[in-house]
TrEMBL record:
Signal peptide: none annotated. The keyword Lyase does not apply. The lineage of its organism: unclassified sequences, metagenomes, ecological metagenomes. InterPro entries: Leu-rich_rpt (IPR001611), Leu-rich_rpt_4 (IPR025875), LRR_dom_sf (IPR032675). This is Leucine-rich repeat-containing N-terminal plant-type domain-containing protein. It comes from marine metagenome. PANTHER family: SOMATIC EMBRYOGENESIS RECEPTOR KINASE 1 (PTHR47988). Transmembrane segments: none annotated. Keywords: Leucine-rich repeat, Repeat, Signal. Coiled coil: none annotated.
Length: 99
């Protein structure tokens, strides 16, 4: 359970906090946790683009980002998630195809 909780908290620390150097370091730490297998950020009030660093979580099997205010193109780096079996992006303003 801890393997799932730590990256979730780090993600929230970056997305919901003020932008400063510490948060950039948190973002890097989040994506250096290679054993994360599920990430559920649905209904979290997230806004903006899906960052390309999401593609670094190569062990993900489930990624839930639905019911947020995400916009823009689906990053091609999602194609790096070769273990992904469930991807939930609905109820956002995303465009493009899923790689």
């Amino acid at each position: 359970m801890i393997k799932r909780l730590v990256p979730l908290l780090l993600f929230f620390g970056l997305v919901l906090g003020d932008c400063n150097d510490d948060e950039v370091e948190l973002w890097d730490e989040c994506y250096s946790i290679e054993n994360t297998i599920e990430l559920d950020l649905s209904n979290s009030g997230l806004e903006g683009l899906i960052p390309p660093e999401i593609g670094n979580l190569t062990n993900l099997t489930k990624l839930k980002l639905y019911n947020n205010q995400l916009i823009g193109e689906i990053p091609p780096e999602i194609g790096n998630l070769t273990n992904l079996t469930y991807l939930y992006l609905y109820t956002n303003q995303l465009s493009g195809s899923i790689p």
